[in-house]
Amino acid sequence: MRRMIVLLAAASLWLPVAGSAVGAPAETPEPAATPDPAAKQPQVERQPQAEQQPQAEQQPQAEQPPQAEQRPQAEQRQEAQPQQARPAQAAMDSAALGKAQAKLGFHLIDKLSGPAKEQPKGPAKGPANKGEAAKGEASKGEANHIVSPASLAAALALIDLGANPQMRAALAKTLALEGNTDKLAALRERVKALAAETGGPLTTANAIVIDPKAQPYPTAVEKLAASGAEVTVESLSDAATLKRINDWVKERTSGLIPSILEQAPREGGLVALNALHFKDRWLNRFDPALTKPAPFQTIGAPAAEVPMMQLTDARLRFRRQSSFVAVELPYVTERFRLVVITTTDKPARVAQFNTVADWLTGDGFTESPGELSLPRFTLGSSVDLLKALDALGLRPARLSPGALSELSPGPMMITQVMQRTEIKVDEAGTEAAAATAVVTSRGVTLDYVKMTVDKPFMFALRDADSGLVLLTGYVGNAKVLAS
Q1: Domain tally for the chain?
Q2: Residues 288-307 pLDDT 10s
Q3: Which of 90, 128, 315, 394 could pair with 133 as two cysteines, CB 3.0-4.6 Å apart?
Q4: CATH number at residue 380
């Protein structure tokens, strides 16, 4: 029987698509920590609330986390309120969401690995145990990339609650939801339901921190809170706020991702957050005694020795077509699966996986006896996904001054989409985490210009009425300026 050597050219994390509830199997080791709903959340923490006032007149302090029935202090402009309520959400089944997530994941990885490559900034360990081989060879061939479509979609679905129609349509298109804006509401409901589940291998949560300078509309704040997100209004320029954001991410990812932002956003906008953590054992475990060094073929570089796990005499779900072969590996909690696709001949670049990207949904697989050789690997990445999202069609809408006009009276736009991911696959199972921070800034529009005169310059002192130029000059000597 032919041995299958699996090439991991690209990896992605997305939402589970089975409809059953998450169960906690008895033999699952070290189940993912599930925060106690009654426990205090110390990371994106809420400030003490002011005494309740009548709803129409209530004016809580800016640093208080707004509740659904409260009104932020800065909101006084009824004439600029958001548009009418949105239509009822369109139903979206698990299969449709799975296809959208698989498509989004492949497109993001394809953009990241394109001509304008953006190398992972965080831990980037390849198939070798500690990443020795992958780091050294990344510049010679295809680099490792890992993204979380689930975490990204959950964070952008929060932004949708404050978006104008053009921006909503762009978000739906970018997230591979066929441009159907109603599916964004269905996506939020799916994420909200997952966040409420306890005791299983997956935990996920949303949060949003809004700077009081953004003057968020009360109705927008209420919608955000109703979506299940933890909502706070506090100054993003405060170092303590940034620390709380990073601590929230660390807790929600069980420490796999210690932070998400290195510096606070400028001009006081908002930060929309999602974090998820997954840990489960294989249904068919690999025997550690069978793991042996074996060559892993790379593109444009010599083969590297990696620890190759072995699964023999197993009945697994496979799919084969032309030079591609794939396997779907179930976990103890069977709703979760890992799909791995590789080639049977020469190594393939990311773009060459385009014809089989829909296999990532697990469709078309059939059970048969076989054996599997799979590298033990750890991967991690830290990347700003904004350029990739712009390439997928987000840019025109996000640069519009009114992109988030249903959230705030002033112009606001997305300026950063940071995502950090970690995954570890070994003989026992898989542990993975992802965190996404969608950052917006206030007062940034298409005609916004930032100018710093720190090089030689010319100047003119002129009379606009008469046309006379009183003085003109060139300054190129810094000593003159210093004196």
Answers
A1: 1
A2: 999 999 989 888 888 888 99
A3: 128
A4: 3.30.497.10
Tell me, yes or no, whether 480 lies in a domain: no
CA 449 – CA 462 distance, rounded (Å): 22
Range of the domain at 396: 1-452
3-state DSSP helix/strand/coil % of the chain, to nearest 5: 25, 25, 45
Q: Is the pLDDT of residue 209 over 50?
A: yes
pLDDT in tens, 125-134: 333 333 333 3
Question: Please, how many CA atoms are within 13 Å of residue 52, restricted to the half-sphere of its CB?
Answer: 5
DSSP-derived secondary structure letter, 332 = S
Answer yes or no: is 471 within a domain.
no
Decide if 257 is inside a domain.
Answer: yes
- Does 106 map to a domain? yes
The stretches of 253-393 forming alpha helices (DSSP H) are: 386-389
What torsion do the CA atoms of 423, 140, 357, 10 make, to the nearest 10 degrees? 0
Contacts of 436 (CB under 8 A, 6+ apart): 148, 151, 152, 154, 155, 260, 273, 274, 275, 417, 418, 419
Distances (CA, A) of 341 to 6, 8, 369, 374: 7, 7, 17, 11
- Beta-strand runs (E) in 30-153: 146-147
Q: How far apart are CA 177 and CA 198, in angstroms?
A: 28
